[in-house]
Amino acid sequence: MIRGPAALMNALSGYGENIKLLSSDGLIVHRCEDPRVVIIEYEVHGKVVATGIPYDNRLISVITIDNRKISHWRDYMDSLSPWIALNAEPR
After folding, report:
1. CA-CA distance, 26 to 84, in Å (whole number)?
2. pLDDT tens per residue across all 91 residues of the chain
3. Domain limits at 64?
């Protein structure tokens, strides 16, 4: 069982080394009242490097743009998706 943000970060610490992203799609852009802020929804697809097990996830990013540059980017993802893919038994 994972409890708290530190435990979650520890459990997913090898995400970038263990999951190879191959594509993304499903982009939806949401405009906000604050013209500097945009929210995007998208999906990523890939595979677990060690096992070849498919990996799919959905994300939401909240992006702030100042002077035509990204000044802040925060991602929210389905944390269960990588956990399941990384712990699944190879077929």
Report:
1. 21
2. 667 778 767 776 777 788 888 999 999 999 999 999 999 999 999 999 989 999 999 999 999 999 999 999 899 999 888 888 888 887 6
3. 5-87
CATH at residue 67 = 3.10.450.50
User: Would you give the end-to-end CA distance of the chain in angstroms?
Assistant: 25
Question: For the chain, what is the domain count?
Answer: 1
H or E stretch including 7? helix 5-11
The pair phi, psi for residue 73, each rounded to 5°, is -140, 120
Coil, helix or strand for 17?
A: helix
Please, how many CA atoms are within 13 Å of residue 55, restricted to the half-sphere of its CB? 29
Q: Is the pTM of this model over 0.85?
A: no
Residues 9, 77: contact at Cβ < 8 Å?
A: no
Strands 69-77 and 19-31: unpaired
